[in-house]
Amino acid sequence: MISSGKNVLCINLSKQQSEVKSFSDLDPFLGGVGLGAKLLQLYKDDDPVILSVGPLNGYFPFVSKTSVVLQDDDGVEDIYVGGTLSFRIKFSGVDAIVLLGKSKNSCVLNIMDDAVTFESNEINAGTLGLPGKRSVLAFNSNNELFLDDYFKLPQDILEAKMTSKALVGVVVTGTKTFSIKTPDKYNELYKTLLSRISDLSVEKNYSPSCSGCPMGCDRSQIGERAGDLLVHSLVACDYAKRIYGDVGTVFSCLNVLGYDYTHEDIEKLPTLIDTTFKELSS
Amino acid sequence: MGKKTLRVAFPERCVGCELCVMEVQRQLKKVGLDGSLIRILREKSGYTISIDPKVDSMGIEKIKLSCPTLVFSLEEQANDL
């Protein structure tokens, strides 16, 4: 198996401290919304915002989104943003970033792999991190939240939460690389999946695209809210549900990367996440 | 015949999907952004594509074909006398 457990970068905004924690018992939640829901449950007293990716982000096409799970006045929200963020989080070497508490002063988080610095709100977030390896999530001069000056999240859910936490920007740089254990099998599966463009529910266009997706569609500019729990645990695009909503395909992808999830583990996942959401709502 | 080199022929077509980066890294049997011989840099008005000349020692035909918007071309270098 590639790894055992989930690595979570916990950032305490109140104390301006951070640490990476390894959770050996969270493998059943896979990643994305599954991992986000469980971490929300574990940290619910600290008003967490969980940014998470899944095991296939960075490896396979159309697995291009980042899950954001948080709690607001309407209950638990799961929303998804496109762009480059999923690759940067994956290549920072963590499965999730958890933002806890509230900063005393407005600040920008500069995350370089698993190292975090708390910058003044006067700094231009676009100057932080490493070009070509960073994602910049920041408010613009009109107080609108953008990822890389283009991608947005649905409605104002994250905007409101970041404002309440006195967070004006988050920059993530990922510099880690990972080797492929079985490159021939991996390459074959990668090409097979990439060829399934006709299974996507978006049309090809020339808009800024998400990392790992050739479509350039104009629908990913504004992310997604809720949707298929398996797809969003990976975290794939909901428009690729015909590919990544299939248990056999997901099993093949995980297997070729060296994970030892079974078909049954994958089939049970939506129920496991539903149960977690219900426990959070009760 | 001269050696072929990878050129950025139509940078304005780049949609920032980074499939070319994935192709370069896959040829090196890894995933990630670090050490890639192609970098995609987000600018206010689009993308800038930075190519390390060492990329020409790789499978550049496959890299060219990995781009969904045909940003790259292969050009022949003149032989040195």
TrEMBL record, chain A:
SUPFAM superfamilies: Aldehyde ferredoxin oxidoreductase, N-terminal domain (SSF56228). It holds the Pfam family AFOR_N. Residues 7-176 form the Aldehyde ferredoxin oxidoreductase N-terminal domain. InterPro entries: Ald_Fedxn_OxRdtase_N, Ald_Fedxn_OxRdtase_N_sf, W-dependent_AOR. One of its GO terms (molecular function) is iron-sulfur cluster binding. This is Aldehyde ferredoxin oxidoreductase N-terminal domain-containing protein.
From TrEMBL, chain B:
It comes from the Bacteria. This is 4Fe-4S ferredoxin-type domain-containing protein.
